[in-house]
Amino acid sequence: MSKRLTVPQPEAAVQAIADAHAELRIERDADPHATPADDSVYAVTYAAARRLGFVPADAAIVAGAWVRRAARMGLQAHDWPDDPQDFGLALHPQPFAPCPHDMGLYAVLPNADWVARMAAAGVPTLQLRFKHDDPARIAREVQAAVRAVEGTPARLFINDHWRAALDVGAYGVHLGQEDLDTLGPDEIATLRASGLRLGISTHGYAEMVRAWRLGPSYIALGAVLPTTLKAMPTAPQGVGRLRAYARLLHALPTVAIGGIGLAELPAVAASGVGAFAVVRAIVQAPDPQEAAHALMQRWSALRADTAARESAA
Questions:
Q1: pTM
Q2: Higher per-residue pLDDT: 292 or 9
Q3: For the chain, how many structural domains are there in total?
Q4: Closest CA to 122 of 288, 304, 305
């Protein structure tokens, strides 16, 4: 950092920041040795972020944002940074094709048959997450899924298999951080030029910053709550962090994912995200169509309540 601002009593400032943002804490990476190395804004806020449970890469992003905000606005220790300029973010000059901010229920499904069922049920956003090693089998499944949504308003994203998605003209693709690691600049340029929408999974500030800089169509935020479906690189983020993430990323569509069902929808809707992704809440439901309808109806009601309150304010 080229500019450091002095904070008196750094250990007290660390505790004050942590106390003021207790809802951002998670039970992971508790580090009793995370104390300020000096009295700089960076050191204080890095230590506070670590105390709140942020992994080192995310704590570094938060601390850098705090320094930039302090340089712009002066020291306001209890205001969590949520302005893109403080994170060094600007909208991409050539973003991927856009998708709606309010994508609603986003069902993540294991095969084309499930895609057909949920498209027929009226689910607005779908993802084919088909796990297989045979390229020919993958191509057939992707093509079948794309055909399954023809004539419906459903938006279909293909997880991982972006080349197969390109070949059959899918609406979009969804990639994880490990997928981005395998793509070179030319492949990113090919995806962008194709008109495919791009969604990217993230699990904290460092990955969000990386995703933003590609100009994606949306950013997925998770895992919000505990999930048993896959091993996650970080602990559940919680709804407190989800709200902070949604404020920062308000210029882009966002999707909350991880451990979400009917009971969690009020907190998720209140966060400001425009969509929520589910897996078990549909594919493990006794009646998947009924479960999908219940989720969509509840979400619509919650969004309508939020809009009414904002209009009245």
A1: 0.92
A2: 292
A3: 2
A4: 288
Q: How far is the C-alpha of 175 from the C-alpha of 159, rounded, in Å?
A: 6
Is residue 3, in this structure, part of any structural domain at all?
Answer: no
Q: Rounded distance, CA 41 to CA 47, Å? A: 10
Instruction: Tell me which residue range forms the domain holding 221.
Output: 104-312
- Per the prediction, the chain carries an average pLDDT of 90
Active-site positions? 129, 201, 230
Q: How far apart are CA 105 and CA 273, in angstroms?
A: 11
Residues 83 and 109 in one domain: no
282 burial type by CB count under 10 A (0-12 exposed, 13-18 middle, 19+ buried): buried
Helices 205-212 + 238-248 axis angle, to 10: 30
Other beta carbons less than 10 A from residue 85's beta carbon = 12
The predicted model gives 274-286 an average pLDDT of 97
Task: Name the phi and psi angles at 245, rounded to 5.
Answer: -65, -45
